[in-house]
Amino acid sequence: MLVGTALMAAALTACGGGSGSGSSGSGPGGAEMKKKPDMAISVNLTGDQAKPGEPVKVSLAEGKLSQVKVSDGKGGELPGKISDDGRTWTSERNASPGTDYKVEAHNTDSQSASAQFKTVAADKVNKVTINPGKGSTVGIAQPISIVFDNPVKDKAEVEKHLLVTTSNNTEGSWGWFKDYTGNDRVDWRPKDYWKSGTDVKVEMNLNGVDSGQGGGMFVKDYNTEFKIGKDRRLQVDLNTHRMTVTEDGQAVRTIPVSAGTPGGKKASWSGKMVLMTKEGTIRMDSQTVGLGDSYDKMVDYSMRVTWSGMYIHAAPWNTGSFGRANTSSGCVGMSDSDAKELFAEAQVGDLVEVTGEGSKGKAEIGNGYGEWNLPWDEWKAKSALNGTPRNG
Description:
Blueprint: H1 2-16, E1 41-43, E2 47-50, E3 55-60, E4 65-72, E5 80-82, E6 88-94, E7 100-107, E8 112-119, E9 128-131, E10 136-138, E11 144-148, H2 155-159, E12 162-166, E13 172-178, E14 184-190, E15 199-204, E16 222-228, E17 232-237, E18 242-247, E19 250-256, E20 271-274, E21 277-285, E22 296-304, E23 311-314, E24 332-334, H3 336-345, E25 351-355, H4 376-380
Parallel strand pairs: 2-8, 10-16, 17-25, 23-24
Antiparallel strand pairs: 1-3, 3-6, 4-7, 5-6, 7-8, 9-11, 11-14, 12-15, 13-14, 15-16, 17-18, 18-19, 20-25, 21-22, 22-23
């Protein structure tokens, strides 16, 4: 019986391959046991010249993944999901340009593996200008507006990474067009005007997104959040030469005004617009808006309505026309006292609506915020995602 045991031990030792086979520990009778091999993973991005702008994919040859972590050198992580069969993990975000990444993977057998790679820097970087600014309070007509430094050819891909969240599930849609500068621009407007008190959060998860040929890649995320203030509307009637100011649906003030001279370049724009900025005392030079040497003066309580130079402001030199005639060079003028009170009350984002005869029509969408002049279905059609709202 002792002889049989010895033979069995010898056989087990022979099968184990000896210490040179990577064995660890001894089994019964002193037999060497085989060490369980480490798990093996493959990563679609490798080396120090990996291509950015695509998701990271981690694959497992055998077994099932239990956890995968892909982190950069700054403490950030790429979120991702394991496939139903447990064999692959894919990041929900693209790898960013010029970034070192570390991959740490674990399987259901408590084994682990790691890998590293570095993406090349972007040849060209795209950036954005965002409005409204973070922490601001704006009026009920203010859209979310993003203007891009470089062209955006792949608008659908960029739009997929833009998310609007509101405190009351406001319905809205993105729409693409050209800004007054000629740059690509995408705005988000609600189906109807905002409700006062709405909290809005905008997440632009653009890091690692390619804007397409000639536009470059984004190398950071952007975000903003703001609140909707009082429902204030400035309604200018070109026929009666008066502005009616309403707050929460009630008329609170009627102001005698003089708008643009009917006919030609000095007429006012009409339609639905938005109070863009409150600039205060500024120099207005007619040569900058193509009106020759008509005027060059300092103007108080100036509030911009279009990029092309239509303002609401004090115009004491035109007192005789207030409430009687439209004789300005395109702006809506009023007395110093009326302008001062309105300037103090008004907020960026208030609706400005001009009706009546003698205007030069509606301004282009990008000449300020002209999207409210479009029916809802027409606005939704400007989305690169076929009008599918991205809001919550």
